[in-house]
From TrEMBL:
InterPro entries: Beta-grasp_dom_sf, Mopterin_synth/thiamin_S_b, Sulfur_Carrier/Prot_Modifier, ThiS/MoaD-like. This is Molybdopterin converting factor small subunit. Gene3D superfamilies: 3.10.20.30. Pfam families: ThiS. Signal peptide: none annotated. It comes from Thermocatellispora tengchongensis. PANTHER family: SULFUR CARRIER PROTEIN CYSO, SULFUR CARRIER PROTEIN SLR0821-RELATED. It comes from the Bacteria. The lineage of its organism: Bacteria, Bacillati, Actinomycetota, Actinomycetes, Streptosporangiales.
Length: 92
């Protein structure tokens, strides 16, 4: 088994168009490192200066990892990680 990572449309150019990819690791940081090895450039879009980028939301089994431990959040086989770009805007 592996960890399923769901990729938003804007980042699919790094995964050859795949909506979801599989990875492995004991923590979110290790998982992102594993993904980077197979999908170069993806890590730079998710991580900046040792932390998740401000405008990228990452969910582990529907829970925001910022409240679970950030990059140190433990992950396990069978988990689902969803990456979502933050959306802002609107009319005043």
């Amino acid at each position: 088994m592996a960890i399923e990572v769901r990729i938003p449309t804007i980042l699919r150019s790094y995964t050859d168009g795949a909506k979801a990819v599989e990875g492995k690791g004991a923590t979110l940081e290790e998982l992102i490192g594993d993904l980077e090895a197979r999908h170069p450039g993806l890590k730079d879009r998710l991580v900046e200066k040792g932390a998740l980028r401000r405008f990228v939301n990452v969910y582990l089994n529907d829970e925001d990892v910022r409240f679970l431990g950030g990059l140190e959040t433990p992950v396990a086989d069978g988990d689902t990680v969803t990456v979502l770009p933050a959306v802002a805007g609107g009319a005043a």
